[in-house]
Amino acid sequence: MKKQNWLIVAAVVFLSALPLWLVPHLDIGTAGSPDGRPAKVFQGADDRARQAIGDLAPDYKPWFSPLLEPASTEIASLLFALQAAIGAGFIGYWLGSAITREKLLRRGNQDAEAHVD
Amino acid sequence: MHIMEGFLPVEHALGWSLASAPFVAWGVHSMHRQLQTRPEQRMLLGISAAFVFVLSALKLPSVTGSCSHPTGVGLGALLFGPLAMVPVGLVVLLFQALLLAHGGVTTLGANLFSLAIVGPFVATALFRLGRRFGLPLAGCVFTAACLGDLSTYLTTSIQLAWAFPDPAGGFFASLAKFGGIFAITQIPLAISEGLLTVLVVNALARFNAEELKRLPLFAQQGGGA
How many CB pairs under 8 A join A and B? Predict the structure, then answer.
């Protein structure tokens, strides 16, 4: 079981790191749009979709703009990191307490057995 | 999968909001009832929500040369059923729409529909199907989470293709274009999400076996990995 879990972690890291090497080597996704704008490598897919909308419907004007925009990309990454930290913090708390609970249960059982003897 | 603020025509934005609204009401009701009958499951629900928070914040590079993020809704859908993920998805999408200008209020209905309705329902259906055929638990969890994730991005592509059909090729040409941007990019990320979901279910099966057995989806086959 433990080995399987480590293999899973290794596979996820590999899958995430592979594009970083593969994309510049194979020159994928850098061709740019038909109107000659150069494409940014590893741009967000959401931004690519916005460009595609611009190509399909050049006259379309967004009719609503975000109420609040992060002051800079640094602030945006701060908020994304905060979101991940809240989630990871909770999972870490659960894992820690689950492992401790199991350990205490096992010790409790051993004590009980010792008393029986 | 976040359609940006203002980037859906008014009637589409309204239509998707109306389509999602009953699921929100139904989802809040279902979650409330589940927690009242089994308060000990709060921890599991917290883990499911936390998983969505982590995964939807991680923008990972993909082989298409762009970045996208997993959804994380598969885990909660398998544990609590698809409806419980609607309120969780709503919280995450609101946080990102209001504070991060990621997604938007006008596109909230459409984004909620792909992330918190289609994804979880597809994941649950595939999981049930796999278990009915007696496939191993880890395989079912992986397939459900992976394809649930992909179905979310496929839905986004359909939503955008419907709103912005190609002037020459119509809906399908446009779907191919948005599918290339979202669905193809998502393939390696969906595999990662499937693997990570298996990891968490492995941990839950070890540490929370009792609670897991009482969940309807796992109870049928008795839990254990």
Answer: 181
